[in-house]
Design goal:
Strand order of the largest sheet: 1-2
Distance between the termini: 80 Å
Number of strands: 2
Keywords: Ribonucleoprotein, Ribosomal protein
Structural class: mainly alpha
Order of helices and strands: HHHHEEH
Organism: Acyrthosiphon pisum (Pea aphid)
Family: Belongs to the universal ribosomal protein uS14 family.
Largest sheet: 2 strands, antiparallel
Protein name: 28S ribosomal protein S14, mitochondrial
Pfam families: Ribosomal_S14
Strand content: under 5%
Oligomer: single chain
Shape: elongated
Length: 138
């Protein structure tokens, strides 16, 4: 029993150096364990990244595209605009964004105004959780 206590104390003393071996010796979970985030799945996280990229670069890409397609300005400026568009990230395009449900990340059957799938929308509307939505009665 004394041997086990001494070994544990030695592990505690070595824990100051914070090596992975010492972490497992102390019973601490390793740092590469999965962490949860606020997205339902990886597709939704990818969609959020694309939306942030569009928010950051979308205006510039739109302006460069207008310069590139303008026939009145000189060719040198159009070529510069071509190079600038080439340097912008691909995700800075509106067509790369997929409408997904914010709760389930379902890509089809979404109600655009609330950004929810038809299934989640119906469930929330049934229990009066959406403002301004009523069941149809006639």
């Amino acid at each position: 029993m004394a041997f086990i206590i001494n070994a544990f104390q030695r592990c505690k003393a070595l824990a100051k150096f914070q090596t992975p071996v010492n972490d497992t010796c102390l019973g601490v979970l390793p740092c590469y364990q999965q962490t949860r985030n606020k997205w339902p799945d990886f597709r939704m996280k990818k969609d959020a990244r694309k939306r942030n990229t569009l928010k950051e670069y979308g205006v510039y890409k739109l302006r460069y595209n207008a310069l590139r397609k303008n026939d009145i300005i000189p060719l040198e400026i159009q070529e510069i605009a071509d190079k600038e568009i080439y340097n912008c990230p691909r995700d800075a395009s509106i067509t790369r964004i997929v409408q997904r449900c914010q709760v389930t990340s379902r890509p089809r059957g979404n109600v655009k105004r609330w950004r929810l799938s038809r299934i989640v929308f119906r469930h929330l509307a049934d229990y009066n959780k959406l403002a301004g939505v009523q069941r149809a009665m006639w």
